[in-house]
Amino acid sequence: MSDVQDDTTEDDSDASFGAEVGKWIGIGLPAGIVAMVAAAWLMGDDMTFGEAFATGILPGVLFGVFAGGFIGTVRGMRNMH
Fold first, then answer.
1. Angle between the 49-79 and 8-43 helix axes, to the nearest 10 degrees?
2. Cβ count within 10 A of residue 11
3. Which of 28, 46, 62, 74 has the largest CB neighbor count within 10 A?
4. Is 36 exposed, middle or buried (0-12, 13-18, 19+ CB in 10 A)?
5. What are the pLDDT digits (tens) for 57-73?
6. Which phi and psi angles does 44 have, rounded to 5°?
7. How far is C-alpha 20 from the geometric centre of its chain's CA atoms?
8. How far is it, in rounded angstroms, from Cα 30 to Cα 4?
9. Residue 74: which pLDDT band, with cuts at 50, 70 and 90?
10. Which pLDDT score is estimated for 37?
């Protein structure tokens, strides 16, 4: 029985890392959507808000998830020693 190892610290570290990435994706997703829709609306000539939303939703989702995941990975790696 002496060869049984306790891996709870590694599991806690993985869960903490995943939670950090998920938290920042949750922050980045709405921020990216708002930023891209607002940018499309402000830069579009005679563009309605609906057209701006349709134009900015996909890049907003992609940018928000990428940026949030990247920041979450950096923050999660910083907490791992």
1. 150
2. 10
3. 28
4. buried
5. 999 999 999 999 999 99
6. -75, 135
7. 10
8. 45
9. very high
10. 95
Q: Evaluate whether 71 touches 23 at the Cβ level (below 8 Å).
A: no
Provide Rg for the chain, Cα atoms.
19
pLDDT of residue 81: 63
DSSP per-residue letters across the chain: -TT----HHHHHHHHHHHHHHHHHHHHHHHHHHHHHHHHHHHHSTT--HHHHHHHHHHHHHHHHHHHHHHHHHHHHHHH--
pLDDT at 6: 56
